[in-house]
Design the sequence.
């Protein structure tokens, strides 16, 4: 074992050497040092604001749906570790990857039949885009190489995904001139239950029709736009996209990296609309938050198109593609999810969030409170003071990570009613002080 380091030493070295997400170097605010995690609780290495444990309101960015240190997922990881943690995927295959791919095909919308296992959500989006562009190239239509999306989206931090993130005010505004120029529709009108806006539907149809010659694909997050602004829209617009894409010969990609595996109340958000995409990206909750893994699924038409082209292969193959350890845990996580009435758990959390966040609507500085599935959002009328909001939540014994004007939570599905109430109290405290 290496020499133990004190929390103070670790934090000093962290500040000196370690980049954190969306952070400067050295970091501005000191991160909290987590020693271990179990169930819905993060155990801190030293108390902060009088708390040595925090209820996790973030599921580690939508991923830890079963909570931490889960015996079933631990067993899957241990079992696989003893067989092999990794072997290359070129020329070799293994049971964890095959089982996982078959399961993803079984549970996802019917037309999706083929699975590319990637190492992160952003890479799965890169692969989705490559699939779409290559499909049209193979069919002798190389001009079809642009993407259309609606504003307010988020698809990851690598190059192609950045080009379809919200172009204004988002994290990637800096790169506007350098990124491929995509086509942006207005953001979808807000509200999951809102009556579909005919003028907006016409706007989508018109843009897709006008650019059909140069469009490879439309890519959107179905029903919930996550890191681009935590907003919800009517599933009706997904049907509009499906129809317009079919009419004009454009592929449709659903990025379900955040919405997949039950978060919105449906196993996949596409189910709210009753439509299937041509390509779908999964990630985040895929391994129950244990390991990094993502998947790009596609239809047989897309796979055939690519495989009949001049270069009849999909030229992509990450070193850690199909990682057995991650695949085994993912398969166990999906089994665990489907073995319980997860829909009921999500509904229970939804009710708890509606109840507990209602009070936030009356706070000064709060613009809107919205809840869908196991997602609760309080939007302020100003940029949140991150340090103050985080401190207020920690004081309530809860971990939250607000951004922009948003204080939000998507708790693990195993979060008990008392802990959901506690998370809501912390969101309200953060809204008051942030
Ligand atoms: C998080 C996210 C991504 C990027 O996934 P990473 O694993 O962080 O690369 C892409 N799309 C959506 C919708 C996401 O929420």
Sequence:
């Amino acid at each position: 074992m290496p020499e133990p380091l004190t929390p103070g030493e670790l934090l000093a070295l962290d500040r000196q050497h370690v980049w954190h997400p969306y952070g400067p170097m050295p970091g501005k605010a000191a991160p909290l040092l987590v020693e271990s995690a179990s169930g819905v609780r993060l155990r801190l290495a030293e108390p902060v604001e009088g708390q040595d444990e925090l209820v996790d309101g973030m599921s580690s960015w939508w991923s830890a749906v079963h909570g931490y240190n889960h015996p079933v997922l631990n067993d899957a990881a241990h079992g696989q570790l003893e067989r092999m943690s990794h072997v290359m995927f070129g020329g070799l295959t293994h049971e964890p990857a095959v089982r996982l791919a078959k399961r993803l095909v079984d549970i996802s919308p019917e037309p999706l039949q083929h699975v590319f296992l990637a190492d992160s959500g952003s890479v799965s989006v890169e692969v989705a885009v490559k699939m779409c562009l290559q499909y049209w190239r193979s069919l002798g239509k190389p001009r079809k190489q642009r993407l259309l999306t609606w504003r307010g989206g988020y698809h990851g931090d690598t190059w192609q995904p950045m080009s379809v993130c919200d172009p204004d005010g988002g994290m990637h505004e800096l790169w506007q001139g350098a990124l491929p120029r995509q086509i942006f529709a207005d953001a979808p009108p807000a509200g999951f239950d809102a009556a579909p806006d005919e003028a907006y539907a016409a706007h989508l149809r018109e843009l897709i029709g006008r650019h059909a010659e140069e469009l490879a694909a439309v890519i959107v997050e179905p029903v919930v736009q996550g890191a681009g602004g935590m907003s919800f829209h009517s599933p009706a617009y997904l049907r509009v996209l499906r129809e317009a894409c079919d009419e004009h010969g454009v592929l449709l990609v659903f990025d379900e990296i955040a919405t997949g595996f039950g978060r919105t109340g449906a196993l996949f958000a596409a189910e709210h609309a009753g439509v299937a995409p041509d390509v779908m990206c999964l990630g985040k909750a895929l391994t129950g938050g244990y390991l990094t893994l993502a998947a790009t699924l596609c239809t047989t038409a897309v796979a055939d198109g690519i495989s009949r082209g001049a270069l009849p292969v999909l030229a992509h193959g990450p070193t850690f593609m199909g990682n057995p350890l991650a695949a085994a845990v993912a398969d166990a996580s999906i089994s665990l999810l489907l073995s319980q009435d997860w829909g009921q758990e999500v509904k229970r959390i939804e009710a708890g969030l509606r109840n507990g966040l209602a009070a936030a609507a009356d706070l000064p500085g709060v613009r809107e409170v919205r809840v869908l599935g196991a997602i609760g959002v309080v939007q302020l009328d100003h940029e949140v003071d991150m340090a103050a909001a985080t401190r207020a939540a920690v004081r309530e014994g809860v971990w939250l990570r607000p951004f922009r004007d948003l204080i939000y939570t998507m708790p693990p599905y195993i979060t008990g009613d008392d802990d959901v109430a506690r998370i809501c109290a912390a969101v309200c405290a953060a809204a008051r002080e942030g």
Summary: The mean pLDDT is 97. Residues 106 and 113 are 8 Å apart (CA to CA). The pocket of pyridoxal-5'-phosphate is lined by residues 120-122, 125, 154-156, 221, 226-227, 255, 257-258, 283-284, 294 (CB under 6 Å). The two ends are 42 Å apart (CA to CA).
